[in-house]
Write a structure and sequence with these properties.
277 residues, globular
Amino acid sequence: MFKKAIVLMIISAFAFAILNVFVKSLNQFNVYQIVFFRSIGSLAFTIPFLLHHKISLLGKKKTLLILRGVVGFVAMTLFFSSIKHLSMGSAVSIRYLSPIFAALLALVMLKEKIKYLQWFCFAIAFSGVLILKGFDTQINEIGLLYAIASAFFTGLVFIIIKKIGNNDHPIVIVNYFMIIAACLGGLFAVSEWNNPVGIEWIILLSLGVFGYFGQYYMTKAFLIGEVNQVGPLKYIEVIFTMLIGAIWLDEIYTFWSFIGVSLIIIGLTFNVIIKIK
């Protein structure tokens, strides 16, 4: 089962990497329009799933579900904005600081404890961000701010989902997120709407497809594998994103980029392992 979990996580990481590359390549569209298409693409899977299994679309914890959707929309918008200003590897790496923000928020809001070694892991990860900011001349300060803010709001999403617990089906939670993101993204995109042409339609609509299957296979991997073994594998997305970005979009990574990204991944990986033990 562990080997199957590895394969599923690799598929998930590759799907998310393709999504990141597509977002980066869609510079002619504003970020809200990209969020809109990302969301309706996933709704093509979530709504039929819920209807087929006769699961209520409304859910039970409606207030928390709506809050998760709004916070998720903010996190997604900020992340897509960061991709437009940073190299994809840096943006994805910094976005993955979200578990650290989630742990800090849980410490304050849920009174959960953080192990001493986890603080050390947090320090390693944040040192990677400081290196990117201080030594990598390609780092854009606005993009860095967007990425860190996205990580914070993603961490808040984790807290909200934890509060929802098992009261609602995971697809119900995702469906709320996609509906709210589609509505808000479409609303904010109206003033700067750019009609897609030709293959742009396919790329925009495929964002939701890659996003949905990336999430689906990651969830399946966690269900059949041990979290401390499977969890660190999700950071393969960073490697895939950097490789595809370098080949496809001619992105260039400096020595300090690699150092900073590596420290972030190392810190986050050991945090997963230590947290489970």
